[in-house]
Amino acid sequence: MSMPFYVAPEQLMKDRADYARKGIARGRSVVVVGYDEGIAFATENPSAALHKISEIYDRIAFAAVGKYNEFENLRVAGIRYADLRGYSYDRSDVSARALANAYAQTLGTVFTTESKPLEVELAVAEVGATPDEDQIYRLSYDGSVTDERRFVVMGGQADRLAEALAERWQPGLDLGSAVRLAVDVLASQPDEPPRTIDAAQLEVAVLDRTRPRRAFRRLAGPAVADLLAG
Known about the structure:
The longest helix is centred in the middle third of the chain and has 21 residues, at 68-88. The strands form 2 sheets. The protein has a 5-stranded antiparallel sheet with strand order 8-1-2-9-10. Strands 3-4-5-6-7 form a 5-stranded antiparallel sheet. Strand 3 and strand 4 form a beta hairpin. 39% of the residues lie in helices and 24% in strands. The protein contains 6 helices and 10 strands; from the N terminus they run H-E-E-E-E-H-H-E-E-E-E-H-H-E-E-H. It is an alpha+beta fold. Helix 4 (158-168) runs antiparallel to helix 5 (175-187).
C-alpha cells in the first residue's frame, strides 16, 4: 500500500513563494518615481504593443513585472472594477487604495488556494493635487501590500536598484530629472559600468497632476530621448 503524500503547510508556502520570486526575478525592473508635477514610470520594454505600464482610471495607473498574461488579466480586471465603482457611485470614489485592496485579495487567494501562485508584482499609483497627496502601493505575489512613499522599484534586482534610487532621489525633481534618474537606475549593474539603454527600448509614462481629468499619458520615443538628453 502506498503512503499518502504529505507536505507541511510551511514548506508548501515557502515553495510557492520561491517559485513566484524566481519568475518575477526574470522580468525587467520597473521604476516608479514621484516628481514635482506627478508620478513617472519607466521600464525597459522593446515591445510597442505589450505594455507593462497602463492607465486604470482618471488619475490612477498600474505597472507590473512578471508574466505578461497574468498581469494583463489583472489590469483588465482593475479597469472593470474602477469603471463599475465610478459608474455606481461617483468618479471621485475610485481610489488607488481600494484598487490595491481588491488586487491584494485576488493575489492572496490565488497564492493560498491555487496550485501555482501568480508570478507578478504590481504597483498601483494615484496622483493627488499635491505631491503629499500622491499614493503608491506595491503588491506582492502573495497579496501583501506596502504603502510606498516617493518611489518604488519592482522586478529582478529591486533591492539593489531601490538602494541606488534612495541615494539620489530628492523632493521637487522636475520630469526630466525624474526620468533620467529612473533610467540611470535601470541601467546600473553590480560591479560593472552602467549599460546604455536607448530611448526606443524604454516604456515611459506619467500621471501628470496638471492635466484636468485624465492624468495618464505615455511619452513617445522622441520625447523620452529629449528628456534623457537633458
